Amino acid sequence: MPGGAGAFRARVANQTGRRACADRASVVNHARPRLVVIGNGMAGMRAVEELLQLAPGLYDISVFGAEPYGNYNRILLSMLLSGEKIIDEIMLHTPAWYAEHGVALHAGDPVVAIDRRRRRVHSRKGIELAYDRLLIATGSQPVMLPLPGNDLPGVIGFRGIDDVQQMLQAASAYRRAVVIGGGLLGIEAANGLSRRGMQVTLIHRSDVLLEQQLNADAAGLLSQHLQARGLSLRLKANTQALHGGERVEWVELADGSRIEAELVVMAVGVRPDIALAKSCGLYCERGIVVDDTLQTYDPHIYAVGECVQHRRLTFGLVAPVWEQARVCASHLARVGHRRYRSVRTATKLKVTGIDLYSAGDVIGGAGTEDLVLRDPRRGIYKRLVLKDNQVIGAVLYGDVRDGGWYFELIEQGADIAGIRDRLLFGRQYCQAHAAQLEATA
Q1: Residue 338 has pLDDT above 90, yes or no
Q2: Boundaries of each NADH-rubredoxin oxidoreductase C-terminal domain copy (predicted)?
């Protein structure tokens, strides 16, 4: 990112300084029902987008967001950190968009209380607003391990633009960083900090990275690749405590070893942000419990995104959140015919130069069999998990071109008996072989 942290802050200010225009541009027409959206992130604003397409002008819409800027693509934060994207490139809805669509944006002013009896929300800055329908999209909060020293300056999560700004400031002033957590977010954070010139150690409690998405072989290739980039890996390691004075200085592991670091990033997962919903008496378990229409136990209140729990599941990937937004918007638009159903999703790692794709059941078990292709010279590994002549899982490393096709086969439950021997060579090869058979028949 050209210009470093100072230029980064300037770009954010440029995006946020005009947000008041969205408030001024929203003309309140009390003849229309009022929709209040709590949360200016990807889930809530995707629902607003869908609603505006289905029923433009149906509601007076007001959006409250905790962060002081427009809606941005949180998925691309790792590329913002690494310098592959700038702030303008990850913005989804600028303040001008809200003004253009008549949506009142209250950025940097989160809702702190919901009065369900009077149907009103109260913001931190003292705004009180009535609603006919309320959409809660408060997202999730990063899990911060309850370790001694976790409140030291320099110990942060990785969830928003402010976190990226702190990492950029640290990278410009210090040399050593520790990232705790070997999942997708941890690997992306470690890679970004390394690209910024820091010496990075990645700590993970399992003996393989991405253990939920990869088998041991693919995880081993990923580890080799990351180490070749200069990252240090401490696998099967548990963090015991963080130490320092005015700032974090070193990390103590359970085996007694220590790793010096002036920046510690915790990327060990997220939990649904349900504090506001619980405070107003909405029924919550791990998340805000919703039905198939994304309605809560209060018929005037809906919820979408990482804060919700649907049929015992919570969500952390974008595909199910997009579907939730579509379903919710259709019911808010009064054309409700959709019902939300959880769907399988695929995983792609957003690290430049590392091609990795994972979908379905990648571990397998009783009654399953594996098709495996290894090409160490080219750094390619493919593993397909089969059961009853169907693909139920796929792990691709180095060559992910056919990931989407394998995912389709998984979703469709397709019978692959006729192409089993050629399946690892991809869609194009299988189709060419089928065409050749037809031509000679």
Answers
A1: no
A2: 346-413
Quick one: tokens of 240? 């015991």
Domain ranges within the chain, ordered by starting residue: 4-141+271-332, 155-268, 355-440
Report the SS3 class of residue 68: coil
Enumerate the β-bridge partners of residue 60: 34
User: Cα–Cα distance between 244 and 436 in angstroms, integer?
Assistant: 68
What is the Cα–Cα distance from 144 to 13, expressed in whole angstroms? Answer: 28
CATH code, 4-141+271-332? 3.50.50.60
Cα dihedral 151, 154, 159, 161 in deg (nearest 10)? 130
Pick the CATH number of 155-268 from 1.10.486.10, 2.20.25.10, 3.50.50.60, 3.40.630.30: 3.50.50.60
Helix (H, G, I), strand (E, B) or coil at 222: helix
Which position has the token pair 């995983």?
A: 347
Average pLDDT of the chain? 90
The b/e string for 202-217 (b: 16+ C-beta within 10 A; e otherwise) is bbbbeebbbbebbbee
Give the bridge partners for 260, in sequence order.
250
Q: Which CATH class is domain 355-440?
A: alpha beta
Q: What is the pLDDT of residues 371-410, one digit of tens each?
A: 999 988 888 899 999 999 999 999 999 899 999 999 999 9
Residue 323, φ and ψ in degrees, nearest 5: -65, -40
Instruction: Answer for the pair 279, 266: CB distance below 8 angstroms, yes or no.
Output: no
Cβ atoms of 352 and 319 within 8 Å: the answer is no
Nearest to 394 by CA among 218, 230, 138: 218
Using an 8 Å Cβ cutoff, are 308 and 315 in contact? yes
Amino acid making up residue 296: T
Place of tokens 């809906």: 302
- For residue 244, the 8-state DSSP code is E
CB distance 307 to 137 below 8 Å: yes
Q: How far is CA 171 from CA 9, 19, 120, 175, 197, in A?
A: 15, 30, 44, 7, 7
Cα dist. 392→169, 219, 308, 316, 388 in Å?
44, 19, 27, 21, 9
